[in-house]
Amino acid sequence: MKNSRDLYKKGTVYLIGAGPGDIGLLTLRAASLLHKADVIVYDGLINNALLQYFPTAQKIYFGKRKKGAESQKEINQLLVDLAREGKMVARLKGGDPIVFARGSEEAQYLKEHHIPFEIVPGITSGHAVPAYAGIPVTDRHLSSTVIFVTGQEREDKEGSLIDWAKLAGVEGSLVIYMGVKNFPFIVKRLIEGGKPTDTLVSIIEAGTLPRQRLIEGTLKNIVQKMEGQRIESPAIIVIGEVNKLRRDLDWFDQELSKEREESFSHELEFARELTQKYETAPTHAIAVKNLKHGGDLEGFAAQIGKDKKSIIDFSSNINPLGISPKVKKVYEESLSCISQYPDTYAREFCQAISGHFSVGNECVITGNGAISLIDLAVRALRPQRALVIQPCFNEYKRILHLWGATVDQISLRDENDFQFSYDDIVRKLSGIDMILLGSPNNPTGTALKRDEMLALIKETERRGIFLVVDEAFMDWTPESSIYEEINRSSTLIVIRSLTKFFSLAGIRSGFALASPRIIHKMRSVQEPWSCNALAQRLSIAALEDLEFQKKSLQWFREESVEFYQMLSHVREIKVYPSLTNFFLIKLHDRDNRESLIASIKSKGMYIREMNDVEGLENHFFRIALKDRRENIKLIAAFKEALIKDQCLSS
Q1: pLDDT for 509-549, tens place per residue?
Q2: Which residues are catalytically annotated?
Q3: Which residues in 572-601 are b (16+ Cβ under 10 Å) and which e?
Q4: What is the fold, at CATH topology level, of the domain defined by 297-319+549-649?
């Protein structure tokens, strides 16, 4: 037997099939390789939920930056360059890497450049997606033949390899990949070739995923039905008699699919245990590395080749009114404190928090921003099994995994505008000992209603479940806060930040409110001097500047409504309602993503891409609320880029 080190080679490219979308269909070999990879190069058909389970690898998204051959050349060269750097490269493709996926072209290029490679087959969507819709592609009574064909060839292509007239005469199942855009042309050619117009057709959109959707018809009416339902790629089309079996074999349960996706971490852990004897490194996730955050002006400036002072930063959700006058004054008077040790327990700061929120000093602990306090709470309370609501701030899962917790999750739904469901949360509480949720949630801007949050506090108290509520953005909607409940609950922890509303991102300041017992546990594991002297002084001044807080809220309530309306008038995007100073948006045509991002970047505008956030796809973005002038500039840039894309596509 080979040494286990030989199974995972540096400088090798692994062309891996991720399967059709359901992350539970990943093969054992693929999971093992992704766990060991230094870098994962993936495209737009990959379920982003999958990537979160392989945290140590660098992620490189390579979607439709350019059309056709030029784009493929860039990918080929990228794989060679990464391998020559001595990295173990996972080239992750939807479905199977060599079934209508250009994996063979990449393998040939690697061979020509003397780069070792391995092809790792995946479950192809051509039979898996129909199976999830209750359609077997073969049946001994209905079809002994199945043909898989791409539908992506253009109508006007010279030298087509597809003879639709011949295919029309085949008795059996015809399965078409990537055929949505050209389907009217395909239907026309099949009918011209003699295919009966009453031949059954099924189109399955987003197959194997919780949002799977299906329309049925015949060659005579399917195009009209498809256009009426606005079917989008990715989709698989099945033509033939096997569609008769769909209603009898329809087994797919969307709710069950969501639960299975949410429990994938358990399946993956089992897979890692099975392969452990072949691996030399530990199989459990130690920490999630390479997480992206907004506000990386240095990195963004280097990426686009501009001075960071010229960048308009829509990626970080900081109050554009800036620092309050009182904070500025105290800052100028505080230079002497830099040479002194800070108060280890931040007594004056805690007293200011106590007075501002009407809680006891013993219920307050300060720290280096909200993240440090979330980490502190998890480290002190050590949950065995925690619940998060996705999509959410990436750091939640990283911190929970870091301290050994198993993480269950609930997925908010696009069709419900990512609104929270109290009932969904309560149904998942069995076996949970901590819930970690944002209120308002980042990046969706949504939250449980106040009465539902109060009910959840009572329910978690009854069950003995710690409820960690991250209120980092609550200053924008203070009437929704539940901080006062810490006086009545022994399991509630409220995390607050001065980073966003008070524009103190550079000094990192935050605090937690909880029962004295919990605060004592957190203090017992906290490092000394966790809140620096300057942060303590400026934070006190910020809390005392009530006039600035009033002015900021008044500005926000006027400007957020105006910006939401401006975004809503851009037809090519969907903007989701938000309780706070940012908006989540979705680009309707995901093929325009790369050109839109390039256009926005070229104008020195920095928006937060969401392709690393589990529960969102790469055509989602988060945009912070800025001043009126900058907001108008962004809207104009969006419209210009999207109009240009429309002109090019037409």
Answers
A1: 999 999 999 999 999 989 899 999 999 999 999 999 999 99
A2: 43, 64, 178
A3: bbbbbebbbbbbbbbbeebbbbbbbbebbb
A4: Aspartate Aminotransferase, domain 1 (3.90.1150)
